[in-house]
Every structure is written in structure tokens, then in C-alpha cells.
Amino acid sequence: MDVAEARFDAFNALCPSRRLLDTIGDKWASLVIVALGLEGPLRYSRLATRIDGVSQKMLTQTLRGLERDGLVTRTVTPSVPVRVDYALTPLGLSLLGTLRHLKDWAEEHMPQVDAARAAYDRGDRV
Amino acid sequence: MDVAEARFDAFNALCPSRRLLDTIGDKWASLVIVALGLEGPLRYSRLATRIDGVSQKMLTQTLRGLERDGLVTRTVTPSVPVRVDYALTPLGLSLLGTLRHLKDWAEEHMPQVDAARAAYDRGDRV
DNA sequence: CGGCATCCTGTGAGATACTG
DNA sequence: CAGTATCTCACAGGATGCCG
């Protein structure tokens, strides 16, 4: 297994695209980025309500990951009670631009995907 | 739970970007698309060797999904033994272009992400 | 308010063996 | 050659309860 694992690690290390996809492919991560992009800096509690269906655990976990990756900043205001704001970094902001490309493709082509899917499920044969 | 689930479905239905991310965020799906993009049509067995570490099960499952979504075609040649070729559709090809945008961002910015990550793990505080 | 620690569960990936 | 079928097991992720 050592050999396989070594190859796998090398593969990941050498493939930035793959690692990017791992990041934005994450359901909550992409939603957080978009939310912060649309509304600017947000408090934790506000993010929680803006992103429908996310659990505390996943929100926190996602934010930690994004912070670690330098995509968002975490600002603690030590008032009582505590206030924590999250915002996109310039890096996160540039990623937002790339996400827009994806969005464009999606809005232009997903209907075709839907049609293909419906046809496939109907069992259409050429 | 009905309410929550209903909202969730509506959310997914109304958000093409999210569904696109679900597709290309899938590890094997994106690798298959890129492999077919780089080398043109490929047989099942060739895909299996080109995509390092994929299991039969996941490869088949991934290809079925991509075929269903109209991104790849599956062509069976009923010789003995059977021969099956997979190729990108025009739709899949256009998606490949979008993936290139992602790749560009990744190659330009992932080093920054790596740096941020290393700093975070080192425990650097501002 | 904004978390972390703990427990619990379901999905889904991998290994293995069999088939048209 | 190109799959399908079955099992097992790990881990992502939800629920809950406590803390600074």
C-alpha cells in the first residue's frame, strides 16, 4: 500500500486544480464564500441564518478551513458577549470571480444537463 | 423535517451552480473529464489505468453519472470480447473549458493558499 | 454569542468474487 | 473486457450538552 499512497500524495501535491476542487467542491465552503461575497463581512450568527441548513459544527469547521487557507479572515471583538466577524480576504475575493465563471456555465448549460438526465431516466435509446 | 427538506430541494433546484459543483467536485468525475479531454476517446480499461487509484466500482459509477448528465457518450462495440469507448460530448467539452479557468486560478493562487496554510499551522499570530 | 467535546448514525468507498 | 453483486468498515456529519 505504501507505493499506492505515495503516488496518491504526489498526485495531490502536484495537482493544484484537484485541491481547489476539494475546497470549493465542499458544499458549505462555497456557500460561505458566496454569502460573504454578496453581503460583505458577516457575523457568525448571521452566516448561520443566511446559509440555510448548516449545522453549527459544519459552519465552524468550514470557517476554520477557509481561514486556514487564507480565504477568509476571522475578527474577534472581545465585547460581552463576544462578537466574531468573517470577511473575504483579497484571495477569497479573487476566487469569487472564478466561481462566477462556473456560475455562468451552470446557468447556460445546466438545462441541457437536466434534459439529458430526464431522457436517460426515461430510458430513451438512440 | 418535511419543511426543512422541502426548502433544501427548492434550494438545489434553484441553484445550478451548486449542482455543477456537485458534479465536478466529485473527485473521479473531474478526473475522467480531464482525461478524456486530454486524450480523446478512451476505452474503459484504458481509463482505469490512466486514472490512478480508481476502483472498478467508482469508475463505472462515475461514468454512468457523466453519461446520464450528457457529458460523455458510451459506445459499445459488440465484438468478442466486448469493447466500450467513452468520449466527451460537446457539452462535456465546453465544461472542460470552464475547468481550465479553475485550473488557471489554482496554478496562480494555490501557492498563496499553501503559504497561508503553513502559517496557520505554525500558529503564526498577526 | 460563538464556539468545542462527545456521542451516534447513515452513506458511501474499497476489496473481493462472480458473469455475459 | 467490462462490468455487477455483496460485504465491510470508516468517517462525514447531525444532535446534544457544556463553557468562556
UniProtKB/TrEMBL annotation, chains A, B:
Keywords annotated in UniProt: DNA-binding, Transcription, Transcription regulation
Superkingdom, natural source: Bacteria
Keyword hit for DNA-binding: yes
GO molecular function terms noted in the UniProt entry: DNA binding
This protein's name: DNA-binding HxlR family transcriptional regulator
Domain HTH hxlR-type positions: 15-114
UniProt organism field: Saccharothrix violaceirubra
Keyword match Transcription: yes
